[in-house]
Specification:
The complex is a heterodimer. By secondary structure, chain A is mainly α. Chain A is built from 15 helices and no strands. The longest helix of chain B has 28 residues. Classes of the chains: A mainly alpha, B mainly alpha. Chain A: It holds the Pfam family BPD_transp_1.
Chain lengths: ~290, ~325
């Protein structure tokens, strides 16, 4: 270990720490601000623009949001899409990745066809046409099936399966196991931790996805939370989007605090999962350069 | 002579039969693997390869009521419309300009942050800072753009500071087109700068500490060490990341820009991807939009492949 003791070194270290802490604050403060405003009264919000700790706490905005059936429903839709979608992702990705990790007929051709979709895709309009022709338009399944496999995760998962020692599967074959039995009794139990990590990757994509909703869904009843959030915050239509709650309350809270509360609610699951996400995703980045 | 040819063709058909038998036996042996792979293969066919045939829309005057077979074949007409359309050039220019601004401003910041984090002596502080700066990566674009709007809108806190504390005029950050591109770049920096450090930190971790020790003994200061020890260690990672980024200059952050667009900034903000949506889905000009998408895909493919072979030439493995 090297020791830095000269004054210049200390000056360097302190400047470095101060700059990094400032960077971290730039990432953190917008979030704290949103958090604080969502719990503030309107009076306080109007008095001082910048609040990091509210003087009087209120949950008015949250009460209002939960009064709105549109909001609660879209949370439900997103939870459904995230859970079912992730299960579909896992099943489809793991099964194809497993087959491609074994010596399946025409393996090289299949791998090439998978890799090619990472380099070139038909694009938005032809995919939209297929979704329309298959009758998925305006169905929640349009947010699940067209993105059932991410080629990138497929390749990474295949690499994981390839890492399982061959001797285990060979021993099973000698014992008379077929490929289905090998997959379900040997590979699957050994891959549980990896599959858990992949389910996190996929779940975050589903939770944060808004554009498929805009592209494929045209009835607001089916909107996932991110689409509704876009309506509430970036289109600035808080009162129109949550109109059903407006009727119930005589004195609705201002759009500002409602917007911030909505942002926070849409982010809570990500924040809860964040410790796990940070751990697994950092590993995933390093797997980025695996070869097919 | 005749009998020889007969023998020859007989052998060929025998070989064909044995090849066919072998393949059939192989299929039978792999039957469970095919069963397992079937849903995945079906997915790739339906949602990845059928749309590629749908690219033929680009060569039609597609009418949704007549279908692909009923629509009139127009050859390269849609591509001629692209070339003749000044709007397309503007959109292409916006795409390239935003990408280059990202490379100029958003690309170097993770490198700088990684070097700074690497200089931290205190592991606890380092982990704390990492935990905070990685977080924005996991937020959805709706949340990031939403928070940005809340801060920068007319009655937002930034304008509150400008008018209330500094006595300046309010600045229309969200509607003035000249702010569009800087805002887009700033959002990407806020969201991805921390996360982008990971790949550089990994190559920094591989630096031999003895190099630092001998540099100290030779009397090198901290900046000299960064310049002569740290940066050379991550130079190849920087070059590879830069090349790969150049390979995707036509992708300028579709989800983000779509959220940022409004009637005031469409001129400066529309990029290729959002243009395909505007033309294809909103105005139902399917054929033209498909042609624009195909153009983007084809050029993108060439760019990625060249970037990749360039990366290989720099002695790296490449991605594909």
């Amino acid at each position: 270990m090297i020791k830095y003791s000269s004054t210049r070194d200390k000056l360097f270290d302190w400047t470095n720490i101060v700059l990094l802490v400032l960077t971290a604050l730039i990432m953190l403060i917008p979030f704290l601000y949103v958090f604080a405003i969502s719990f503030s009264t309107y009076k306080e919000f109007l008095q001082s623009n910048f609040i990091l700790i509210p003087k009087t706490w209120t949950v008015e905005a949250y009460q209002f949001i939960f009064e709105s059936r549109a909001f609660v429903r879209s949370i439900g839709v997103t939870v459904y899409i995230t859970v079912v979608g992730t299960l579909v992702n896992l099943a489809m990705t793991a099964s194809l990745a497993y087959a491609l990790s074994r010596d399946i007929w025409a393996k090289r051709l299949l791998l090439f066809l998978v890799l090619f979709t990472m380099l070139f895709s038909a694009g938005m309009i032809p995919t939209y046409m297929v979704v329309r022709e298959t009758g998925l338009l305006n169905s929640i399944w349009a947010l699940i099936l067209p993105s059932a496999i991410s080629s990138f995760y497929l390749i990474v998962m295949r690499h994981f399966f390839l890492g399982i020692p061959k001797e285990i599967t060979e021993a099973a074959i000698i014992d008379g196991a077929n490929d289905l039995q090998i997959a379900s009794r040997i590979i699957l139990p050994l891959s549980k931790p990896a599959l858990a990590a992949f389910s996190l990757f996929y779940a975050v994509i589903h939770w944060n996805n808004y554009f498929s909703g805009i592209l494929y869904l045209n009835t607001p009843e089916k909107w996932p939370i991110q689409v509704l959030l876009r309506q509430i915050v970036t289109q600035n239509e808080a009162s129109a989007s949550l109109a059903d709650a407006q009727v119930l309350l005589e004195n609705p809270p201002p759009a500002e605090t409602v917007q911030m509360a909505a942002i926070l609610l849409a982010t809570v699951p990500i924040l809860i999962l964040y410790p796990f996400l940070q751990k697994h995703f950092a590993k995933g980045v390093m797997l980025g350069s695996v070869k097919g | 002579m005749e009998s020889r040819t007969n023998v020859y063709s007989g052998q060929a058909s025998m070989e064909r039969i044995t090849w066919w038998n072998r393949t059939r036996r192989r299929w039978w042996k792999d039957r469970y693997l095919f069963l397992i792979a079937f849903p995945g293969i079906l997915f790739y066919i339906v949602f990845k390869y059928v749309p590629m045939f749908g690219l033929s829309l680009a060569f039609l005057d597609f009418n949704p009521f007549l279908g692909i077979s009923g629509s009139e074949w127009t050859g390269w007409d849609n591509f001629r419309r692209i070339i003749d359309n000044p709007e397309v050039y503007r959109v292409l220019w916006n795409t390239l300009l935003i990408s280059f601004l990202q490379i100029l401003f958003a690309f170097p910041i993770p490198i700088l942050l990684a070097v700074m984090l690497n200089e931290l002596r205190n592991d606890f502080v380092k982990r704390m800072i990492q935990s905070i700066i990685y977080l924005p990566h996991f937020l959805s674009w709706v949340v990031v753009v939403g928070i940005c709007f809340i801060f920068f809108r007319g009655e937002g806190i930034i304008n509150g500071v400008l008018t209330g504390w500094l006595g300046l005029d309010a600045v229309p950050f969200l509607t003035d087109p000249s702010f569009f591109k800087p805002m887009v770049v700033a959002q990407v920096i806020w969201k991805e700068a921390g996360w982008g450090t990971i790949i550089f930190l990994a190559s920094l971790a591989a630096v031999n500490p003895e190099l630092h020790e001998s540099a100290t003994i030779d009397g090198a200061g901290r900046f000299q060490q960064i310049w002569h020890v740290v940066l050379p260690a991550i130079r190849s990672t920087i070059v590879i990341m830069l090349i790969l980024r150049l390979g995707s200059v036509l992708d300028s952050g579709f989800e983000q820009i779509f959220l940022m667009l409004n009637p005031f900034n469409r001129e400066t903000g529309e990029v290729l991807d959002t243009y395909v949506f505007t033309k294809g889905i909103e105005s139902s000009d399917y054929s033209f939009a498909t042609a624009v998408g195909l153009f983007k895909g084809a050029v993108g493919l060439i760019l990625v492949l060249s970037a990749n072979s360039l990366a290989k030439r720099f002695g790296e493995e490449g991605v594909y």
